[in-house]
C-alpha cells in the first residue's frame, strides 16, 4: 500500500474513502490531532493490512499521508517500514518519514503524500501505454530507489506498478518507491549476506514475482530488479 492519493479530485477521494469505510471501519477519526501536530483529513485508501489517511501538518501546512495498521494484526510490518524509511531519509525517490507511534492500539507512520501510482496513471493514457522515453525515466528512477534499499541491506520483495507513485507538484516528474511492508534484511550488521533458507514462503505479487519466488527459493537483490523488469515488459506498465 503506497502513500498516494494527493492529486485525485476531492470528490473522487471521498468516494474511495466511503467504499473503504464500508468494508473496514476507519481506524482514525476525521479531524483528530495526532502528536498535537498532524491533523487527520479523511481516509484515501484501505486494505487487509491497514489504512491510509490524508493529513496536514498544522505547523508548516504540509499535506501528508498517515498510514495506520492494527497492532494485533502485524504491527511488526509498519515498525520495520519506519526503521527502513528512517535509514533511507534523504535518499532520492524514497518518501520522507515524519513521525511514528501508536494510537488506540494501532501503529502509525506519517510520511510524504504522493500522487497516483504508475498502474493507475498508465490507465489514463489514451493508448494505455507509456512512451519509450517515459519508461526509460521510470526505470532509471526506480533502479536508483531499489539500489538505496539494497545498500541498506534490505530487499523490497514486492516490486510492482502500484508500489511506485509520482510526486505532487512541483515534483510530478519524480517517481517514488513505496510500501515497504514486505521488506527482508538480507545483509547482516557485519555486511555479510544471510545464509539462504532451504524454503522461503511466497512474498510479493504473483504477476510480477521472479521464478525464484514462485519456486519458494531464497531471493536476492536481482529478484527485485526482475520484478521491475516484469512491470515494464511490453513498453508499458501493465
From TrEMBL:
GO terms for molecular function: ATP binding; protein kinase activity. Keywords: ATP-binding, Nucleotide-binding. Pfam families: Pkinase (PF00069). ATP binds at residue 67. Coiled coil: none annotated. Residues 38-238 form the Protein kinase domain. InterPro entries: CK1_Ser-Thr_kinase, Kinase-like_dom_sf, Prot_kinase_dom, Protein_kinase_ATP_BS. Gene3D superfamilies: Transferase(Phosphotransferase) domain 1. PROSITE patterns: PROTEIN_KINASE_ATP (PS00107), PROTEIN_KINASE_DOM (PS50011). Residues 1-22 are annotated as: Disordered. PANTHER family: CASEIN KINASE-RELATED. This is Protein kinase domain-containing protein. The lineage of its organism: Eukaryota, Metazoa, Ecdysozoa, Nematoda, Chromadorea.
